[in-house]
């Protein structure tokens, strides 16, 4: 029962940290991008996906080792190549509103 309780607590912890991370970073990015480009409401989706990808890397490489749930089978850092790919995708999603506005429209 302790594994179940600790995994539930870890999931709650992860969701709360992700909500704070995505909200704060998304608002900062929104204010910066709003000064550069005419803002379309759909651009929030790009910022959300990009920030979730960045949070995935941050959580898997740092935060999962400081939580309540302990398991040797699931607690591995992302490989260096996977980290680079996911971070690049996150940055592309965050930069997508600029690319859409400047190059497509």
Structure description:
With 105 residues, this protein is mainly alpha-helical. It is 75% helix and 0% strand. The chain is built from three helices and no strands. The chain has helices at residues 2-36, 43-61, 80-104. Helix 1 (2-36) packs across helix 2 (43-61) and helix 2 (43-61) packs antiparallel against helix 3.
The domain tally reads 1
Let me know the largest β-sheet. none
How many helix segments?
3
What is the string of helix and strand elements? HHH
Intertermini distance? 56 Å
**Radius of gyration over all CA atoms, rounded:** 17 Å
Features:
single chain; mainly alpha; 105 residues; elongated
Topology diagram in text:
Layout: H1 2-36, H2 43-61, H3 80-104
Helix pairs in contact: 1-2, 2-3
Summarize the structure.
The chain is mainly α and 105 residues long. Helix content is 75%, strand content 0%. It has one domain (2-104).
């Amino acid at each position: 029962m302790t594994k179940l309780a600790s995994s539930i607590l870890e999931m709650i912890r992860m969701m709360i940290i992700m909500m704070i991370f995505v909200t704060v970073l998304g608002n900062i990015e929104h204010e910066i991008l709003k000064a550069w480009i005419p803002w379309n409401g759909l651009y929030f989706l790009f910022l959300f996906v990009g920030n979730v990808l960045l949070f995935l890397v941050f959580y898997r490489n740092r935060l999962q080792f400081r939580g309540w749930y302990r398991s040797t089978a699931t607690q591995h850092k992302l490989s260096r190549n996977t980290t680079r790919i996911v971070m690049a995708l996150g940055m592309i999603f965050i930069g997508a509103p600029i690319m859409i506005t400047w190059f497509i429209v």
